[in-house]
Specification:
The protein is mainly beta. It contains two helices and 16 strands. It has helices at 3-24, 221-232, and strands at residues 34-44, 48-53, 56-57, 61-65, 68-78, 83-90, 92-100, 107-114, 117-123, 130-147, 155-158, 161-175, 178-188, 190-196, 200-205, 209-219. It has an eight-stranded antiparallel beta barrel with strand order 1-5-6-9-10-12-13-16. A five-stranded antiparallel β-sheet has the order 3-2-15-14-11, with no helix packed on it.
Length: 237
Amino acid sequence: MNRFAIGAFALLAVVAFVGGASKSVMAGDEHGNFMIRGLVTGVLPDTDATVFAGGARIPGANANVSDEVIPATTLTYFFNDNLAVELFCCFAKHEINGTGAIAGLGEIADTWIFPPALTAQYHFNSGGRFKPYVGAGLQYIAFFDEGVGRTGATSVDIDDAVGFTLQAGLDISMGNGWYLNADVKKTWLDTEISWNGTGVRADADLDPWIVSAGFGYRFNLSDIFGHSAQTASIPMK
């Protein structure tokens, strides 16, 4: 099963879960204070790297990080109809390939990433079905389970990184709290990659585009907590 199929399956699972929950404890609300989205997301790094061996730059050497399609989700809290804060998260695995003067090496590393992004948003509410928004914030990328590729290195270390993120998106109301969503984020961040045992390292600008589409469900958190509190209460005699 390829990553796109996994993403589509995860998206349907989120929709089914939210739909089932909405029947039991939640009522969709166009102006609710919380939204959850299930997304199919393309992570598209815009990579530029400077590669060094023994402290000296390798002329013409560069690297490319693979594009990936993955499942993702967002959690958005609305302070009012216009102001919100959103947490985006997912997991992805990327391959890093040599280009330019080191293109003959092929895959020089691979890594899993955990790239949560937190953005403050402004939503333009025109009163119609179409609700565009913009946002700005930070993205943190944690790299783990790095592979050495074909380099002969004993291990590969990639430094975790934090970068500035801009965002633009559109929610389209389908009624009863359901939305279609399209979203694009651009993050600027740098990291350092070290191939241990070889004396080779690289300074890499990753600068990914993160492009998403999927479904969202908006409701009030009080519908959950109020229901729980009512269920847990014990009448006094």
